[in-house]
Amino acid sequence: MAYPTDRPRRLRRTPALRRMVRETRLLPEDLIWPLFTVPGRGVKEPIPSLPGQYHLSPDMAAKEAKEAHAAGLPAVILFGLPEAKDAAGSGAWDNEGPVQQASRAVKEAAPEMIVICDTCLCEYTDHGHCGPLKGQEVDNDAALPLLARTAVSQAKAGADMVAPSDMMDGRVGAIRRALDEAGLEHIPIMAYAAKYASAFYGPFREAVDSAPAFGDRKSYQMDPANAREALYETALDVEEGADIVMVKPALPYLDVIRAVRERFDKPVAAYSVSGEFAMIKAAGAAGLIDEQAVMLESLTAIKRAGADLILTYFAAEAVRLIG
Fold this sequence. Notes:
With 323 residues, the protein is α/β, with parallel strands linked by helices. The protein has one domain (29-322): TIM Barrel (Alpha-Beta Barrel). Helix content is 38%, strand content 16%. It is built from 11 helices and 12 strands. It has helices at 15-20, 58-70, 98-109, 140-156, 171-181, 202-208, 228-240, 254-263, 274-285, 291-305, 315-322, and strands at 31-37, 44-46, 54-56, 75-80, 114-119, 133-134, 137-138, 161-164, 190-195, 244-248, 268-272, 309-312. Strands 1, 2, 3, 4, 5, 8, 9, 10, 11 and 12 form a 10-stranded mixed β-sheet that branches. Helix 3 links the parallel strand 4 (75-80) and strand 5 (114-119). Helix 9 (274-285) packs antiparallel against helix 10. The longest helix has 17 residues, at 140-156. The protein is globular, with a radius of gyration of 20 Å.
């Protein structure tokens, strides 16, 4: 049957009708808010490349998390900037590092909030790569015990979940074994399973001072041209024990999110990265777009593609609009 019998506009005529037949719903429990933790107390310093985001000392991270949780946000993911860096990234597993301190502080301030810790070394190495070096190459296998040690430290500090983002081969299995051996078998792993060597990460790298001192990360992060490889990478992480799999970035990789959703039964997360956020903020500030409308449309598109969870710098703002 066709027009005039079929009239799809009938169900778009009013806001109530549109809500009734809406296929994709963005909910507060879908969102995870990245927070940047630094040493000290009482620190809340704006991050120029990420408007409205801050470097937060553990006490201030706990304050922000508590307020966001009261508004309906279920989870935060913590990134850390240490006082000092070295070749191995030893600050990553420092039990008194900013991420570990912030984990404890957030759990004390908002016990029901889910605390996730980004498990990587790039923020802690003096060369900015995601593992120790062998010459000018990242030593994949040497990185695995260091990542595992970091995950255990984070879990012991109160993290409800760890999220390895380094893209080293075998790191999910190494972390799973280390957690289990430490009596932390209840801690889930959210693996950055398909993390691309993207140009959309610039503001984040400024925020955590993690740009590589030389070269780039293309030898371990994925080629943006590849989609089938994302399924291969995801399958390996699932086999090694990942509980949640992630695609990063989100909006430029909606096809990959959809492919991962269709292939795997694990919950799928997607990271709407700093470049996505910064572009919307810049266009909004210039008066070129309705910032709130574009934010919600973008997040809805990510969920429509198949993401169960969305990591986004808009989380605290979005939850107040949709809660």
